[in-house]
Amino acid sequence: MREKDIYEAMNQGVLLCDEKSRILYFNSSYSRFIGYRLEEICGKPIRDIRPGAVVPDVIANGKPQESLFRVENDQEYFADVYPVMEDGQVVGSVSVVTSMMNANCIKDKMLKLEEQEKVMKDRLSRTNGTHYSFGQIICSSPKTLETIAKAKKVARHPVNILLQGESGCGKELFAQSIHNESDRRDAPFVAINCAALNKTMLESELFGYENGAFTGARKGGKPGLFETAKGGTLFLDEISEMDYDLQAKLLRVLQEKKFRRIGGLQEIDTDIRLISACNVNLQQYIEEKKFRMDLFYRIAVFPLTIPPLRERREDILPLMKHYLHIAEIQNKQNYTFTDEVKERMYCYDWPGNVRELRNTVEYCALMALSTEITLDCLPPSLLQGQQVMQEENIIPLDQRIREFEKNEIMHTLDIYGRTTDGKKKAAKALGISLSSLYNKIGKSET
């Protein structure tokens, strides 16, 4: 029996690509998902057919991507994409897609995903001290996707990174994701909040100390984070709050790649990748003599700003859905948001960013008297004050959806072109009919 006979007998769709992401083969089930016959697109790069395909990413980094939710030609399905290895080298990929025929199937799959996510987090935590990777960042806004792309690019280079952003916007999530994307992923990720300790305690945590170095010191001494993070990543959160004199000692470690324990004479080599984070303007701190300029240039070889949630509103609804799903599992109860709640949460400015949004969703789930989350379930901060936009300034949700669809179509047309043939390909890639495409973009594009 030939391999292709086996593939054809499967209900799941199977796609094979070579090392350059070109289509080698797919079975009849996969053909029904994408609306093409094999002879029509064999040999073409997969992203020419599906611009959002993750096959090139899997081939590039050799890491599988599993349980990806997709919609194609009005069909909902999950995709698993795996690299194909030969003599330790990636020589292609195999994708398996499974159709979700009803909401119950999707629910079961999502519950399974949740368990897989927990197992993965536990495994990561046991091995290198992290819980997150880029694949776990819930987002759909161009700003967030651009930030992730920059973070992935710099992760592969051994430079120090400064993450800037408001409290609650996900700086440690990005720090852990950068570590897990880097060559240091198998080594420790060690984090400390510089604002949580006074100068003496922070110094002893960073540098460690020898036996009898000070009153109360642990017998036998203690290694510092410069030692425990060796070969990996040291994450200094709220570095702006580090004592000015201690900043000079950190600068020397970064310059010399050596340090001495408190009370010690021996110089110890260190090999760390430093990721720092702050939620203040460090340039202003430099002007006020609160932060050293020379240290700033050492830690900010690559500054990366995490945008606040109010500047990436497209992420709000997906995040609401994600945290609501967690609440459903915890409370063993299904919930839905009313359109009024979605609109109110979409328009709110979220001064506490993603952390505040998560807490708000949990609060709503606890306050709900039924499976429906209404305006009455919202916390006071979303019901009063200047954070809530006036009704006359609210753009209807269906209008926002139309604008989002139009932007996605325009982006796809930029890829395929605005000729008739290009529009046909764009419509097929988006999973809509050509007439629907024309209707959604308006007559100005026809």
Description:
With 446 residues, the protein is of the alpha/beta class. Helices cover 44% and strands 17% of the residues. It folds into four domains: 3-101, 2-Layer Sandwich (Beta-Lactamase); 134-307, P-loop containing nucleotide triphosphate hydrolases (Rossmann fold, 3-Layer(aba) Sandwich), CATH 3.40.50.300; 310-393, Helicase, Ruva Protein, domain 3, CATH 1.10.8; 397-445. The chain has helices spanning 3-8, 28-34, 38-41, 46-49, 55-61, 103-128, 142-155, 171-181, 199-207, 225-228, 244-256, 282-287, 293-299, 316-331, 339-347, 353-367, 397-416, 420-430, 434-441; strands at 13-18, 23-26, 65-72, 75-86, 89-99, 161-164, 189-193, 208-209, 222-223, 233-237, 258-259, 268-269, 273-278, 302-305, 336-337, 372-373. Helix 7 (142-155) packs across helix 8 (171-181), helix 14 (316-331) crosses helix 16 (353-367) and helix 17 crosses helix 18 (420-430). The chain is globular and about 75 Å long.
In short:
By secondary structure, the protein is of the alpha/beta class. It contains 19 helices and 16 strands. It has four domains: 3-101, PAS domain (Beta-Lactamase, 2-Layer Sandwich), CATH 3.30.450; 134-307, Rossmann fold (3-Layer(aba) Sandwich); 310-393, Orthogonal Bundle (Helicase, Ruva Protein, domain 3), CATH 1.10.8.60; 397-445.
N-end to C-end Cα span: 50 Å
Helix coverage percent: 40-55%
Give, in spatial order, the strands making up the sheet with the most strands: 2-1-5-4-3
How many discrete structural domains? 4
Strand-residue fraction? 15-25%
- Helix count? 19
As for the CATH topology of the largest domain, it is Rossmann fold
Radius of gyration: 26 Å
Mean pLDDT rating: 86
- Tally of strands: 16
- The CATH fourth-level homologous superfamily of the largest domain: P-loop containing nucleotide triphosphate hydrolases
Give the overall form.
Answer: globular
| Structural class by helix and strand composition | alpha/beta
CATH architecture of the largest domain: 3-Layer(aba) Sandwich
CATH class of the largest domain: Alpha Beta
Main beta sheet strand tally, sense and closure: 5 strands, antiparallel
Domain Sigma-54 factor interaction: 137-366
Organism: Coprococcus catus
Keywords: ATP-binding, Nucleotide-binding, Transcription, Transcription regulation
GO molecular function, one term: ATP binding
